[in-house]
């Protein structure tokens, strides 16, 4: 009998082969274990702070709640439960819409919020914004990055993987990049785009200015568009390694480069100390993209009609938070600092914890929300994994999950050099639970290493 | 000098050729006119009720506002501005999340809301839901339909256009469909999917049960997946033409068909009497899609991480509105009825208005939010359009816009038979403004027809 359109056998191999490790085998097993209810699962597989107990910031939630319920603004009792600056802000944002949160906005987002984004970028980078340019609002960075990448695939482009240098604080080696691109091109592959995540996921590094310069120069030479995923720009844990935007570095380099390199940068309300993942809001900024191409992107974006409007307001609030003197300023700063400082401490506890384990080495988490320890698996463990039909780090992470409830993502899901193994965890579990989690990890790991023989001659890196 | 990745000349022709009429030339010109501020623009190009003054329903907004501001639930004064049933509902929905509105949900949506959707479908269609199946929540139907269609293109499929029968109340002629598919296949095109919009956009028809049966049989014979866009299922204006879901018709047909036809149905919070377009929430329901394919769709959906959580709650509320006896029931019913009954009257005013114009004929709007009059353009007008380098109905609609501020979408943007011209408007302008809008339309149209010579021998249909 002939196949139907959506029978499994009719599906394209590209779809079947696509892997998405963050919600892959480990996540599915963790969800099963949770359903069985026998084990408490610690979901450190996704950077989802509120799911691990982080409380939302009060002020932005007040503003968006009021925008959802605009009839409250006329209620004589509204001042009893909402501060005056939240009420004023809600009125401000509603005035930027064409019918409140229930109306589609322009597919690039609300013009008024886009202006606030442009001012934020100007304050951050020190360059006056081009009047012709305003960032576009979207419904979260992951959907936008994947749309742009498929857009680039439509152009006949292919993405070529590259490795970060673990011994160089997860920096990029541009010579290696050049080789990868040359090799791909010699195989007839059209390379069109380069993606960097800075601060890094899964690796937690902040790229240095020098490294960013090399990358931009490389993109210019190779005529690549650079997609700069900078969603963790507020998540910085080491003063010596600040976040520097690709846009600023590019502008600092001056003409002709600053007028040449095509750059798209991303930001989101999901990360930072806000962690408003479920709201699905972000922006992207296009630099040196020709106007006619921008028009085409606008046309394609129009098919999805409108980013969600409440998340656009979250983005507006994120780029223009309460100012000194505002009623809500002190509370806002207290809450924000509380979260960021705790993340900083948690980054430290986690790195130190991993580095205290047998056959585990871990770079310090300079930014973002992740720890990416290298697990030096003994040959016997690798053999046991093979027998079980598993990739070695998947084998390790599954055992870790079954033993401790800690749900991680195996390094193989992100790509890693042959014979080297990692896992990714977030630094997001509640601070008070962290010591216990790391203890439970250490206990599991050290037993695992004993079981499979840890004396196999690896030296500490 | 070699091209850069995103130079216009590097873009794929498919992207450049893609047309999206709803936000096309007419919309851009209308936006310009609005910016110039010389003319008040009546945006009837998109079904965006709140942008045209429709007020949001109070109860769902109260619930979502409380979910955004969960700290209010402990505030002793909350009862002064929120009714007790809204407070209870907010607690209910928050209990279904894993960290409130700020946490990513499963990429299929919150399980608890998916159950409410399943119960709604069961009440609507009279079939007990399959325990294995629950609808998936999404961030609006347009993004999901276009993702699924590109998914289907990935399978090597192509979409083949078809026409609706204007003289048969915009029904589908299955013999024509069979011919189109046979012809496409003889040209080596793989046809995989059939899309219907019921109630119809742009045509406003409700498909009859008999017609739906024919369509389902046709999809079965041709092994096509049917995508049933049913976002206007609550927008019904003629009692003799109720909405019937494709799912119900399929189940009524019994085995083997009911177990064979692959069907995906869509719904959204943007339409109905809610009109919550800016919230970006919807669901889709899969029938007879094999579990292994569903797994693949889940994997691909996971890349976007999570539909926005506040919109999921709107969907929950839409499928389980206040019940008789609830504090907010009367107000909810009053508001809902007010909107629906007014839409019904507006549909009537608009159809009658169009039918009173020279060379204009219009089927009655049975459902959805659109009127799709046929404009019988005189040969001289067609000639003038050609001279201006415009498609004839674009020419007409641009003149209409400049003269009256009414922003419509030319029928050519949707596809229409050779030599036949339409425009689409929504029935959404405020009821009290409707007579004036129709008068201004009539004035423009009748003058246009006189100018280009209306005595060219078309007879009224
Ligand atoms: C590098 C990176 N980009 C984007 C995202 C997702 O952002 P959003 O929630 O805006 O889709 C994540 C989420 O973890 C991420 O790690
Ligand atoms: C037929 C049809 N489907 C879907 C949509 C959009 O739905 P959503 O707002 O959920 O993307 C529209 C919007 O006008 C529509 O007309």
TrEMBL record, chains A, B:
Catalytic activity field: glyoxylate + L-alanine = glycine + pyruvate; glycine + 2-oxoglutarate = glyoxylate + L-glutamate
Record's keyword terms, sorted: Acetylation, Aminotransferase, Cytoplasm, Peroxisome, Phosphoprotein, Pyridoxal phosphate, Transferase
InterPro entries assigned: ALAT1/2-like (IPR045088), Aminotransferase_I/II_large (IPR004839), PyrdxlP-dep_Trfase (IPR015424), PyrdxlP-dep_Trfase_major (IPR015421), PyrdxlP-dep_Trfase_small (IPR015422)
Stretches assigned to the Aminotransferase class I/classII large domain: 151-439
Family matches, as Pfam families: Aminotran_1_2
Single GO BP term: L-alanine catabolic process
Protein location: Cytoplasm; Peroxisome
Pathway in which this enzyme or protein is active: Photosynthesis; C4 acid pathway
Family affiliation: Belongs to the class-I pyridoxal-phosphate-dependent aminotransferase family. Alanine aminotransferase subfamily.
Quaternary state and interactors: Homodimer.
Protein name according to UniProt: Alanine aminotransferase 1
């Amino acid at each position: 009998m002939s196949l139907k359109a959506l029978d499994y056998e009719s599906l394209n191999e590209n779809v079947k082969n696509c892997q998405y490790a963050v919600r892959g085998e480990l996540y599915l097993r963790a969800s099963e274990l949770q359903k069985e209810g026998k084990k408490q699962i610690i979901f450190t597989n996704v950077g989802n702070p509120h799911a691990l107990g982080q409380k939302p910031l009060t002020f932005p939630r007040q503003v968006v709640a009021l925008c959802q319920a605009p009839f409250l603004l006329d209620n004589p009792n509204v001042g009893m439960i909402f501060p005056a600056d939240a009420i004023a802000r809600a009125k401000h944002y509603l005035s930027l819409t064409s019918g409140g949160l229930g109306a589609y906005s322009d597919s690039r987002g609300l013009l008024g919020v886009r202006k606030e984004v442009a001012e934020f970028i100007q304050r951050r980078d020190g360059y006056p914004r081009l009047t012709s340019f305003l960032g576009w609002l979207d419904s979260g960075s992951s959907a936008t990055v994947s749309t742009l990448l498929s857009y680039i695939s439509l152009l006949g482009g292919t993405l070529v993987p590259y490795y970060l240098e673990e011994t160089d604080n997860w920096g990029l080696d541009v010579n290696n990049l050049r080789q990868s691109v040359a090799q791909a091109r010699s195989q007839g592959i059209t390379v069109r785009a380069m993606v960097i995540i800075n601060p890094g996921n899964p690796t937690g590094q902040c790229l240095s200015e020098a490294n960013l310069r090399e990358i931009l120069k490389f993109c210019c030479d190779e005529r690549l568009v650079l997609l700069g995923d900078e969603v963790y720009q507020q998540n910085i844990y080491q003063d010596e390694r600040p976040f520097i935007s690709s846009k600023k570095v590019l502008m600092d380099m001056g003409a002709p480069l600053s007028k040449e390199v095509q750059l798209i940068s991303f930001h989101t309300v999901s990360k930072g100390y806000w962690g408003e993942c479920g709201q699905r809001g972000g922006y992207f900024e296009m630099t040196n993209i020709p106007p006619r191409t921008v028009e085409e992107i606008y046309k394609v974006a129009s098919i999805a009609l409108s980013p969600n409007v409440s998340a656009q307001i979250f983005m507006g609030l994120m780029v223009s938070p309460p100012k000194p003197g505002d009623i809500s300023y002190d509370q806002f700063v207290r809450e924000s600092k509380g979260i960021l400082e705790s993340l900083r401490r948690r980054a430290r506890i986690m790195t130190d914890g991993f580095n205290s384990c047998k056959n585990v080495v871990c770079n310090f988490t300079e930014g973002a929300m992740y720890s990416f320890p290298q697990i030096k698996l003994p040959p016997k463990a690798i053999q046991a994994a093979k027998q079980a039909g598993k990739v070695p780090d998947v084998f390790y992470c599954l055992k870790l999950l079954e033993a401790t409830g800690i749900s991680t993502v195996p390094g193989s899901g992100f790509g890693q050099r042959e014979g080297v193994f990692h896992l990714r965890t977030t630094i997001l579990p509640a601070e008070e639970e962290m010591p216990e989690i790391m203890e439970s990890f250490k206990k599991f790991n050290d037993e695992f290493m004993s079981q499979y023989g840890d004396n196999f001659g690896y030296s500490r890196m």
